[in-house]
Design a protein that fits this description.
Layout lengths: L11 E4 L4 H19 L14 E3 L3 E5 L5 E4 L5 E8 L4 H7 L5 E7 L5 E7 L8 E5 L3 E4 L9 E10 L5 H5 L5 H8 L2 H4 L7 H9 L1
Antiparallel strand pairs: 1-3, 2-10, 3-10, 4-9, 5-8, 5-10, 6-7, 6-9
């Protein structure tokens, strides 16, 4: 699996196919509990009716010594991470520097500076899951004191929107395609049929 984060010094990641159905049910349960406590999904105002949650295929992160994940956000509305194997002693990691092996959420503060909410990940976190809004920018810092790998499973939760069948099967009846066909720069140049002042200026913007 390659993503926009793939590169030198970045942990390798692989899509998970086996046991996905069991994991999917658990992730949906966690999402329901998250919503009960934080009411985040119902605060999103961009659909005109409710849509079911869809668990996208998760991936396995295999992080080696000195590797890190740069600042990034995820697709979807909710994202999660499950720590499977933590190879180091957190006390030794903290002795290297205060941010070693941590998961950090980064956000702008009202004074223009950047704030950091930091999680120190230790062996006690093996099997734990953290869930957060997908738009949250975060980074994973490297660890230094173990030659073994750190394993975690990550994934996203989307909203499942099903388009009407006639739009997918018959492009001629697709209203969006008809609208795009109508609003073209060529048509705006035809002054005999259209008011260039009312349509052409909008197109230029």
């Amino acid at each position: 699996m390659k993503s926009h984060l793939s590169g030198t010094g970045i942990p390798k990641h692989f899509f998970i196919e086996k046991c996905f159905s069991e994991l999917k049910e658990y992730i949906l349960y966690c999402a329901e509990e998250y919503e009960k406590n934080f009411k985040y999904i119902r605060s999103l105002k961009f659909l005109n009716k409710n849509a079911p949650l869809l668990v996208a295929p998760p991936w396995l992160n295999v992080q080696k010594r000195y590797e890190f994940l740069p600042m990034h956000s995820h697709d979807g509305i909710l994202s999660y991470n499950i720590w499977i194997q933590i190879p180091y002693d957190i006390k030794k990691e903290v002795g290297v520097n205060g941010s070693a092996s941590t998961l950090q959420f980064v956000y702008p503060k009202v004074d223009g500076t950047m704030g950091i909410h930091q999680f120190s990940v230790s062996k006690l976190d093996e099997g734990n899951l953290i869930m957060f809004p997908s738009l949250f920018v975060h980074t994973v810092c490297p660890f230094y004191t173990s030659e073994d790998v750190r394993l975690s499973v990550a994934g996203n939760i989307l909203l499942e929107v099903k388009w009407p069948l006639f739009m997918a099967k018959n492009k001629r009846r697709n209203p969006i395609a008809q609208i795009l066909k109508y609003f073209t720069p060529k048509r705006f140049k035809d002054k005999t049929k259209y008011d260039r002042k009312s349509y052409g200026e909008i197109w230029k913007r």
